Amino acid sequence: MRKEQSTNFANEQFLFQVCELNSAIAMISGRWKSQIVYSISQGNNRFHLLQQELPNISETVLARQLKELETHAILIKQEIPNSVPLGIQYVLTNKGLDLVPILESLCDWGKMYAEGKEISSYSIS
Amino acid sequence: MRKEQSTNFANEQFLFQVCELNSAIAMISGRWKSQIVYSISQGNNRFHLLQQELPNISETVLARQLKELETHAILIKQEIPNSVPLGIQYVLTNKGLDLVPILESLCDWGKMYAEGKEISSYSIS
DNA sequence: ACAATAACTAACAAAATTGTTAGTCTTTAA
DNA sequence: TTAAAGACTAACAATTTTGTTAGTTATTGT
After folding, report:
1. Strand nucleotide closest to residue B6 (CA to C1')
2. What domains are defined for chain A?
3. Is the pTM above the cut of 0.85?
């Protein structure tokens, strides 16, 4: 439960209004969120497929992360037509699809500067 | 204090090893971090300048965020040569500099899909 | 000598996130 | 008819993050 009278909440709101960067970061910074978005973009678009990809996530936590991504309109939940039993799939919205290449650059950035791979040099200005 | 025997810690480690994306996200997802990186890239490279930019941050919290960014080699702390009194500036490393355009795309993405800025003003249950 | 500024730190408290336990509902296969 | 799979939810506990309080050190302006 968010406490809307807290300093924490006020500071979050302040940053949201300073720059959309901060709301963007807030939307993708949950423990499993960006990995879920990336996995869905790779075709793992069902609850049980995501569970297979992320064997350490509990059902409760996965459901919660998916709901938050849905709240931020990064994905939508869809019934799979003509499926018996009725299946549910998670589909990235345009917003979610546009996020994927950014996650890929973050991934590349992470790889480039991963422990031990860092070529060197601090910039001195 | 991190509890290295916790599920939370184990899950974080798991994600780090799934993809560098997750360590990248972890490095930039503190409350003020990406805004600090962006502010420094705009020239606000001193403690008191950052405080002016972010009037709601406390000294303790700012110092902590800066130290974490330093730990992740996104910036370094430097004494300003020939300054009296000795001043300290924060300088982005190559890693930090390479992060800036990614933060800019995140910002653009946030702006493009901004709809009702109440993103976290309701609780997700 | 004394207050002010810059740049911090440790210890603690408040709040938020993440994980666990124990359920639900619907459909299908044995 | 019973069990299993898929897709969840509420309530609670553990852990982590964020914010607060009360200091420190060094230097400078008055």
Report:
1. D15
2. 9-104 (1.10.10.10)
3. yes
